[in-house]
Amino acid sequence: MAAKEAPKQRDAEATKGRILSAAKVEFAKNGLAGARVDEIADRAKANKRMIYHYFGNKDDLFQAVLEEAYVDIRTAEQKLELDHLPPREALEKLVRFTWQYYLKNPEFITLVNSANLHKARHLKHSKVIEVVSRKFVTMVGGLLDRGVAEGVFRPGIDPVQLNITIAAIGYYYLTNRFTGSIVFERDLTAPEALDERLQFNIDTVLRLVCITP
Predict the structure, then answer these.
(1) What's the number of CA atoms in the CB half-sphere (13 Å) around residue 173?
(2) Superfamily for 63-209?
(3) Has this prediction a pTM greater than 0.85?
């Protein structure tokens, strides 16, 4: 019996994976309100009944997409293995990673924007978000403690505030790069401009955290 159930289980997981991938594209493009379940079903090569069976309603599917998005970035951060690097080098690697992740995964930013439009009601009771977020804060807190112990970082820095700052200085630039290019009369999307901004982000965070930048 188990041998017969295994292929069905694999098929179910594959279908759920296709639905999540299709939903991420649709929600990132059109937001929760504008996303259409029919479009998600077509893109996933599934039917609406399967979507409702696996995920419930559209709000539940949106929550699943958000959870997967946060798990993805938090998992990638854990794989950086920052505890194996000197504190200053580890912090720079985290800043660099955050910037590059946003560039490579623009849908993450649009999904977060959409979640905030709905006051994060889809995440308020998510155990998934709670677990991965606490693990990340613990990781950053450990990095800061290690830097303080080695006389490299200033004491008393809140890991949550630091993460908000690292995210914000990249997030704001990228979400406003098109309007900013007009307002500041320079192409903020050019490769050299992106490189310049990354270095500015790194310098800013190091000056904030390090005793000697």
Answers:
(1) 23
(2) Tetracycline Repressor, domain 2 (1.10.357.10)
(3) yes
